[in-house]
Write a structure and sequence with these properties.
It is a single chain. This protein is α/β, with parallel strands linked by helices. Strands 1-2-3-4-5-6-7-8 form an eight-stranded parallel barrel, surrounded by seven helices. Strand 6, helix 8 and strand 7 form a beta-alpha-beta unit. The protein binds zinc ion (ZN). Zinc ion binds next to loops.
């Protein structure tokens, strides 16, 4: 029975690992749009931010409200904090309705000796983490995952002991974090297999690309969990953003599970729909201000381009000669209209006439002038907030959810 087989789920961490990356950031509105697009794409969970970080509170609470209003239909919104009781208490104080969280603590000898420097040892880490997990459930959490930071450099016997303690405290998943990106697909497979065999619980695979192995490592880890009969949750970022050389690229991971040799029997979450891939990748590129490389899998400008005689001829005769998957599946192939004549935009200093023109073109009606004036005011703030022209979906979002938008733009240090 296919339904009893394990599944591979996606937890996207663009709004957490992606934004904590040096030199790049997203506004709270942009983070909200990423959550909406990930939801549309059928992604299981979005790690949507940092519940103990004060400037995130309004954004996090507003997005939980957005989910309650039905704008986020199936995606889970999860926070990321340190695995300490203090962080758990602060998280629930600032974001009281949070249900899902990842609690993180380092587990390698390297980090224990050279980061904690005597503050925590192997035993106290287990205690600290277990107390944090229990406290989270006491305060209303529904599903807690525990993150073993630097898992790839952690002694296997300790990683197993740590994971057992997490499971005993109530954690539903262990996040195997290849923090430095030093695993290979071979070490990943062996280590995840040993871990899952010993602890019998679902595993999250969190990889980094310092050696260019990030997607391969993620797939190898998920395959190991699957072979041992457990679900896995691959952590991704849109366009492979993330600390240093980045995390596993969302679209590449999905394509690799669907189309790489021998992976067809490894079932990906059936909710996943790549149709939104083109849209989310283009949006993230614009929001981060980082261009999509020409050769990026699936969404790069050259992903379906052919020029040399033999390849062009072959692709024209039958696309399967030189294309592994269809561009239509990724939401590509639709013409995009670019205004080359007069264009009225809505910005920080817009007036009501130009603003009405912009929304008329989007076919978004307003009840009356009062409503239009209210939305105009919000659009001005959104422009101050984003510091770049708003895209159509952002304009639509503000008109549909003005109260949520107002909360997202509000920040009081
Ligand atoms: Zn990371």
């Amino acid at each position: 029975m296919a339904n009893n087989k394990p599944r591979i789920y996606i937890i996207d961490v663009t709004n957490r690992d992606g934004v904590q990356t040096s030199r790049i950031c997203l506004s709270k509105l942009e983070k909200t749009m990423i959550n909406l697009y990930l939801n549309e794409m059928g992604v299981f969970q979005s790690e949507f931010g940092f519940p103990v970080t004060h400037h995130e509170s309004n954004y996090l609470n507003a997005n939980l409200e957005l989910a309650e209003k039905g704008a986020l239909t199936s995606i889970r919104l999860s926070g990321w904090i340190r695995a300490t009781k203090d962080d758990v208490v602060s998280a629930f104080k600032l974001v009281p309705r949070i249900k899902y969280m990842n609690l993180s603590i380092s587990t390698s000898d390297q980090m224990i000796t050279h980061k904690f420097k005597g503050k925590l040892d192997h035993k106290s880490i287990l205690l600290e983490m277990s107390e944090a997990v229990k406290e989270a459930y006491k305060l209303g959490a529904e599903c807690i995952g525990v993150n073993a930071e630097d898992a790839s450099r952690t002694r296997m016997d300790y990683l197993i002991e740590f994971s057992r303690a997490a499971k005993e405290a109530g954690a539903k998943r262990i996040r195997y974090c290849d923090t430095l990106g030093c695993d290979t697909p071979f070490s990943m497979y062996e280590r995840i297999k040993s871990l899952v065999e010993a602890v019998q619980m679902p595993i999250e695979i969190h990889c980094h690309n310092d050696l260019g192995l990030v997607v391969a490592n993620s797939i190898a880890g998920a395959k190991a969990a699957f072979d041992c009969g457990q679900d896995s949750y691959i952590n991704t970022c849109v366009n492979g953003m993330g600390e240093r050389a980045g995390n596993a690229d969302l679209v590449s991971v999905i394509l690799a599970i669907k189309y790489s040799s021998g992976m067809q029997d490894y079932h990906i979450d059936e909710k996943i729909d790549l149709k939104c891939a083109w849209k989310i990748c283009k949006y993230a590129s614009y929001a981060f201000g980082v261009p999509i490389p020409i050769n990026q899998p699936g969404v790069g400008a050259n992903a379906f381009a052919h020029e040399s005689g033999i390849h062009a001829d072959g692709a024209l005769k039958d696309r399967r000669n030189y294309e592994l998957y269809d561009y239509e599946e990724l939401g590509r192939g639709e013409p995009e209209i670019i205004e080359t004549g007069r264009k009225i935009t809505a910005g920080e200093y817009s007036g009501i006439k130009g603003f009405r023109n912009v929304y008329d073109k989007l076919e978004v009606p307003f009840k009356d002038d009062t409503e239009a004036a209210e939305v105009l005011e919000l659009v001005r703030y959104a422009n101050v907030h984003n510091q770049k022209p708003l895209v159509e979906d952002e304009l639509r979002f503000i008109a549909h959810y003005p109260d949520i938008a107002r909360k997202i733009f509000t920040m009081a240090p």
